[in-house]
Design brief:
Layout (H helix, E strand, L loop, with lengths): L1 H44 L11 H31 L8 H23 L13 H29 L5 H22 L12 H35 L7 H12 L9
């Protein structure tokens, strides 16, 4: 079963990568092009030569973008499948499809949306090249803090659910998660490297596109994996076929009147 789930995760991740490529072409590339134009203008004003491109921009925005998005999707799709196999049946009693959808939503929030609040996405031309490693480490540290807080919240909810009702346990676990990520966000240093005069609209559009890319990726992974996991683990589709619906309705019609439940 684990092998089947892993295949479902890889298929879901690959599908997400393809859709993200199309979304990025429409929403992200215009903002990146405007950011590059700003950088070229700044270099020209400072009488600095333009940086040499190891990979031509034309390849970056086409084949390079598709390759990166698919590899990203495959990686997270495989991790998503393994995580689903670990949590299914241990956190709540939802169906495989519903568990997959909730897990995809949690991954989007925990792995991307919360770290984004502390360290927003910037176009490639924004930021000091000498601080790339430091910025990457800080972002990964914030992501790790968010993930650790989420895992701790899940364990706390499971422990509290034995003593109080499920709704109260969930609220307390969410409160714990929020406290941990807020403390982590306040403790970590900020990064402010947007150059003076950089177009605010370009920055906003890029960040807006970044959120959209992640939303498309995790929505696709959740939906595609939900369908595959539901079929693999129960033998039933999420949405029954018309023939199955008609068969079920006919079977209900043949039931004795006293046996029906309204």
């Amino acid at each position: 079963m684990l092998r089947t789930l892993l295949v479902c995760g890889l298929i879901a991740g690959a599908a997400g990568g393809v859709l993200v490529t199309g979304f990025a072409q429409v929403t992200g590339e215009p903002a990146i092009s405007r950011a590059e134009s700003f950088e070229y203008a700044q270099r020209a004003a400072a009488h600095q030569p333009p940086e040499m491109e190891l990979v031509p921009r034309k390849i970056q925005r086409s084949f390079g973008l598709l390759t990166a998005a698919v590899v990203y999707g495959l990686s997270f799709g495989g991790l998503f499948a393994l995580t689903f196999a670990a949590v299914y049946g241990r956190v709540g009693r939802a169906s495989p499809a519903r568990t997959a959808l909730w897990l995809a939503l949690a991954a989007f929030v925990v792995l991307y949306l919360v770290p984004l609040v502390k360290y927003p996405a910037n176009p490639p031309s924004v930021g000091n090249p000498d601080t790339i490693q430091r910025r990457t480490e800080l972002y990964l540290l914030m992501m790790g803090s968010s993930l650790a807080a989420a895992l701790a919240a899940v364990r706390v909810r499971a422990a509290l659910a034995r003593r109080i009702d499920g709704g109260g346990a969930t609220l307390l676990a969410l409160a714990l998660y929020l406290v941990v990520v807020v403390v982590a966000g306040l403790a970590l240093p900020g990064v402010h490297e947007v150059p003076r005069g950089f177009p605010a609209e370009t920055l906003w559009r890029f960040r807006e596109s970044s959120v959209g890319l992640q939303a498309v990726m995790w929505t696709t992974i959740g939906l595609v994996f939900a369908g595959g996991a539901q079929r693999a683990m129960t033998g039933r589709r999420i949405v029954p076929r018309p023939a199955e619906l008609r068969a079920g309705w006919r079977g209900r019609e043949r039931e004795p009147a006293g046996a029906r439940r309204d």
